[in-house]
Write a sequence for this structure.
């Protein structure tokens, strides 16, 4: 107890006497991975690239894979921002502001420590917490623990603190300089029907506290015409130039836009790769054009990300804490009140604003999008203003103010007899990414009033197998005969495609010399399949909305095994699992399912047509089973990856990503031990880290035909010892493979050159073998 008190004192002292630095927690229990910061700031001014939201899969079928990387091009969005604007406000110095904005936005946002946004530590000094429903599984591959560290500061296994049935919840508390306290909760689920979205649940409370201490600087303050805007940069192609992206909004059969609708409406802005003007081929569904080393036949840019508004209040004086007794009566279906995709006028360097009237135009843009931007001198802004005149607005918000749907790009091809035709994709700000944003409000907030604002980030995509098959058929000019399309006539294909693709081209007979693969029906059929990815996004969005409508109480998935071990053996790959005491699902466990992939975790086809990452269920076991030997269909020399899920009596599985073994930590068949050292070989030799000379093994040296126990010492040509490997598992194989890449004893990557392996058994006999590494 004394040690704990000392730790608390030292931590509190440290936090109080150092310059503030962001603290973050990751969420990765499902198919979307993101990092949550304790001050709510998710923009580029902070930790480089960690602000990006990465999709790890999509909904359509098992193991649909979008892309996961550790750098920006793998993301679907970045530079997430939250701005809060209001009117007629007097600050603590007595200065009157006709318009005022605080918060953070894009790369021009306020950074940690700036006097606009403050973290609020708890009584221990923690600024962010992460709660798990079950202990994160330990994953052991051939004796090596490969799971992320747990717990870190602020982590707990605490299901009683989690809202609803979420598998993980991250919470933090920060404060804005206008006297709003913000309580943020992020929730995510691992079960397959709900693992492709992450929820942001924000509660803004008018406390009158404008700085980092607990004194109330503006007791009893009221805030006039509060507008909360979310901004983000959409990079559905992973940021690979020179594509841009476009943004649409959901719609129904009867109205151009989806608001107001019935209680089952989907309030979502979504975006995908643009079919940018000026390309000499149909790039829809691709990732990078020829000039950038891309392949137009590769259908690998099929992501459809979206932001779904789950809740915005009708009345700020009504209790909005969790749970809400009558969500339908509290949730305003007319919110968000603004959608926009234009950056100018909305994103301003607020840190440089000095004059009280300089906030007017940014506030108007938060409220009305480009309608609020008065400077139309720039051609793109003038065009955007004209395009807005083609669309209706709805006088349906709770305050009676207009709802502004700014530049609905799902109709950018339409013409107006007076205004002419505007081609948004030819404008310069579509060169890289779109800038979607949406606002709720305006609200008048009395002292202690609340605004609860809840949204989800989701992603959909077509199955990677479908993408691979369609890419091949498209390259052959035979896309219209793809699977179900073969049973449809040309008119049906066009009708279904146009219905799904908000930026549908009007396909006709196109000159093959100007459009890749001839355009026409071949391109339309390919694009129709790509556009079905929007279907999976919509399903994910509806699942998120229904989950919120149940106060996050969808059926919970059973606990996954607490420990999952995979062992490489000469005649099988052994799997075993167990539960930590207190977390055994004894009442509703129906059994387990085992999944396996060969060569990698991401679906792909190598140049030699070898398929990797093709996940398949290889067995279903009873609830009392604790081990499994995999012997069917495995081939010596290939890497294998596994995961295990627990299945409830109602058929709900635990998260497949929770126990997945990930690259490069693979299992493989080993050799039977040899009686002597005569036949020891090293493969691949040479090892070229740029080429896959051995199946799925760019960064692995394998020693084969070993005795069951020996010591391997690796030297440079000059005699410097760079690595020692103790081989004691009784097999005939050993591996030089460390975390991510083979490394030396000093955790450095070995340089190109000749290396000498000295292999010695306990009895003293030894041999040497030479091998080469090429970088």
């Amino acid at each position: 107890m004394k040690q704990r008190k000392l730790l608390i004192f030292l931590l509190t002292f440290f936090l109080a006497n150092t310059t503030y630095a962001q603290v973050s927690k990751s969420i990765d229990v499902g198919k979307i991975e993101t990092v949550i910061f304790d001050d709510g700031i998710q923009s580029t001014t902070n930790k480089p690239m960690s602000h990006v939201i990465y999709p790890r899969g999509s909904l359509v079928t098992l193991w649909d894979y979008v892309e996961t990387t550790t750098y920006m091009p793998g993301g679907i969005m970045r530079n997430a921002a939250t701005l809060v604007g209001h009117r007629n406000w007097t600050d603590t110095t007595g200065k009157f502001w006709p318009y005022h904005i605080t918060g953070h936005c894009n790369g021009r946002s306020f950074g940690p420590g700036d006097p606009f946004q403050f973290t609020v530590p708890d009584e221990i000094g923690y600024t962010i917490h992460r709660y798990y429903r079950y202990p994160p599984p330990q994953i052991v591959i051939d004796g090596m623990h490969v799971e992320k560290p747990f717990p870190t500061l602020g982590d707990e296994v605490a299901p009683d603190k989690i809202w609803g049935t979420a598998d993980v919840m991250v919470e933090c508390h920060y404060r804005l300089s206008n006297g709003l306290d913000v309580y943020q909760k992020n929730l995510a689920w691992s079960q397959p029907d709900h693992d492709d979205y992450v929820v942001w649940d924000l509660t803004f409370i008018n406390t009158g506290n404008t700085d980092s201490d607990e004194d109330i600087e503006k007791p009893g303050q009221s805030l006039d015409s509060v507008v909360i805007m979310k901004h983000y940069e959409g990079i559905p192609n992973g940021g690979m130039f020179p594509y841009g992206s476009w943004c649409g909004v959901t719609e129904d059969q009867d109205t151009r836009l989806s608001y107001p609708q019935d209680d089952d409406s989907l309030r979502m802005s979504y975006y995908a790769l643009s079919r940018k003007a000026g390309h000499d081929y149909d790039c829809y569904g691709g990732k990078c054009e020829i000039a950038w080393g891309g392949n137009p036949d590769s259908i690998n840019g099929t992501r459809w990300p979206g932001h779904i508004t789950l809740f915005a209040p009708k009345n700020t004086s009504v209790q909005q804490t969790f749970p809400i007794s009558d969500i339908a009566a509290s949730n305003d279906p007319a919110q968000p009140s603004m959608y926009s995709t234009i950056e100018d006028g909305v994103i301003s360097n607020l840190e440089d604003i000095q004059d009280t009237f300089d906030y007017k135009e940014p506030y108007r843009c938060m409220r009305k999008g480009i309608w609020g931007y008065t400077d139309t001198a720039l051609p793109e802004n003038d065009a955007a203003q004209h395009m807005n005149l083609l669309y209706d607005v709805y006088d349906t918000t709770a305050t009676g103010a207009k709802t502004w749907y700014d530049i609905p790009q799902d109709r950018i091809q339409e013409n107006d007899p007076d205004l002419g035709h505007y081609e948004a994709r030819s404008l310069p700000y579509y060169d890289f990414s779109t800038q979607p944003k949406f606002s709720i409000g305006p609200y008048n907030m009395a002292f202690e009033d609340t605004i609860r604002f809840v949204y989800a980030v989701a992603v959909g995509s077509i199955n990677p197998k479908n993408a691979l098959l369609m890419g091949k058929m498209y390259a052959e000019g035979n896309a219209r005969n793809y699977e179900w399309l073969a049973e449809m006539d040309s008119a049906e294909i066009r009708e279904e495609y146009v219905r799904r693709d908000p930026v549908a081209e009007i396909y006709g007979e196109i000159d093959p010399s100007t459009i890749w693969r001839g355009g026409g029906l071949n391109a339309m059929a390919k694009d129709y399949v790509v556009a079905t990815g929007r279907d999976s996004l919509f399903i994910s969005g509806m699942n998120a909305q229904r989950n919120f409508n149940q106060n996050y109480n969808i059926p919970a998935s059973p606990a996954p095994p607490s420990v999952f071990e995979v062992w490489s053996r000469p005649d099988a790959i052994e799997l075993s699992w167990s539960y930590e005491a207190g977390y055994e699902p004894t009442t509703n466990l129906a059994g387990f399912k085992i999944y396996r992939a060969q060569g990698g975790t991401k679906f792909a086809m190598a140049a030699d047509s070898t398929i990797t990452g093709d996940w398949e269920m290889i067995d279903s076991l009873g609830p009392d089973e604790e081990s499994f030997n995999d012997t069917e269909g495995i081939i010596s020399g290939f890497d294998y990856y596994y995961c295990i899920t627990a299945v409830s009596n109602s058929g709900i599985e635990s998260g497949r990503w929770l126990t997945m073994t990930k690259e490069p930590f693979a299992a493989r068949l080993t050799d039977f031990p040899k009686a002597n050292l005569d036949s020891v070989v090293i493969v691949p030799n040479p090892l070229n880290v740029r080429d896959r000379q051995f199946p799925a093994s760019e960064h692995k040296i394998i020693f084969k035909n070993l005795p069951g126990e020996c010591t391997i010492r690796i030297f440079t040509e000059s005699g410097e010892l760079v690595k020692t490997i103790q081989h004691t598992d009784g097999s005939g194989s050993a591996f030089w493979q460390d975390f991510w890449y083979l490394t030396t004893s000093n955790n450095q990557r070995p340089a190109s050159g000749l290396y000498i392996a000295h292999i010695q058994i306990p009895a003293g006999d030894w041999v040497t073998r030479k091998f080469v590494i090429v970088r």
User: Anything to note?
Assistant: DSSP finds eight helices and 39 strands in the chain. The longest helix spans residues 533-549. The chain has a mean pLDDT of 75. The two ends are 53 Å apart (CA to CA).
